[in-house]
Specification:
With 225 residues, the protein is of the alpha/beta class. It has a domain of 156 residues: 3-Layer(aba) Sandwich (Rossmann fold), CATH 3.40.50. 40% of the residues lie in helices and 10% in strands. It contains 10 helices and 6 strands. The protein has a 6-stranded mixed sheet, with helices on both faces. The structure holds zinc ion.
Length: 225
């Protein structure tokens, strides 16, 4: 597929298996590719449940060619020091978006100087995954399960809905089952930066995660099809 853009995954989105699966498997049939760094993978593995399959083992077993080189963060101003290596590695690899649960630790000045955005997985996936991709990923996750939920509907309702409520809501009519309630402590901030989450074009304004062309138009300004 031509023109697939590269998206960097922060360590915290590699840990939950459903989020990781949606990003990695979803990328195969979507308009993006994913990457992460070796130090991000090590950081994620330190936080994985002891019985969970190690991310590095999965990467090797499935032949994911995703690792990008580490970079020294130079001249960063307002990003948390522990996140600066992620920003530097992502930028050096050519990624314009970082998918992360941790928006607030990435500084606006650094995002502006690198012309990048950070975006929560729920917003990213609900913007970029197509209905066919979503169903394919649920089928793949269900096929690999030995514990419940092990049907696409069960994963959608019990695992996606609590963790990624906007994504589950977007496809609520695709899999016609009641959705589990969103988990407590929903993130206050889901986007920060200077790239549109949809087309990745540069945007001067920060008031919306989508550029003017990618925003759904209001009914009274919808163009005739
Ligand atoms: Zn756009």
């Amino acid at each position: 597929m031509p023109g697939k853009s590269l998206v960097y995954l922060d360590a915290n989105v590699l840990i939950p298996s459903v989020t990781r699966g949606l990003l990695i498997i979803g990328a195969l049939t979507s308009d993006f590719r994913v990457c992460w760094s070796g130090f991000g993978e090590a950081e994620a593995e330190r936080h994985q449940h002891e019985r969970a399959a190690k991310i590095s083992d999965l990467r090797i077993r499935f032949g994911w060619e995703v690792l990008v080189p580490e970079m020294d963060p130079a001249d960063m101003e307002d990003t948390d020091p522990k996140d600066q290596p992620h920003l530097a590695a992502a930028h050096a690899a050519g990624a314009r978006l970082i998918v992360t649960e941790n928006i607030k630790d990435f500084g606006l000045a650094d995002l502006a100087s690198l012309s990048m955005s950070v975006v929560a997985p729920d917003l990213f996936l609900s913007t970029r995954l197509t209905e066919n991709s979503y169903v394919d990923v649920l089928d793949a996750l269900a096929a690999g399960r030995t514990r419940d939920p092990r049907t696409p509907e069960g994963i959608h309702s019990q695992e996606v809905a609590p963790r990624l409520p906007a994504l589950a809501e977007k496809f609520v009519s695709t899999l016609d089952v009641p959705l589990g309630a969103p988990a407590k402590g929903a993130m206050a901030e889901i986007f920060r930066g200077y790239r549109c989450v949809c087309c990745e074009d540069e945007m001067p304004n920060l008031d919306h995660p989508l550029c003017g062309s990618c925003r759904p138009s209001a009914p009274d300004e919808a163009s005739p099809s």
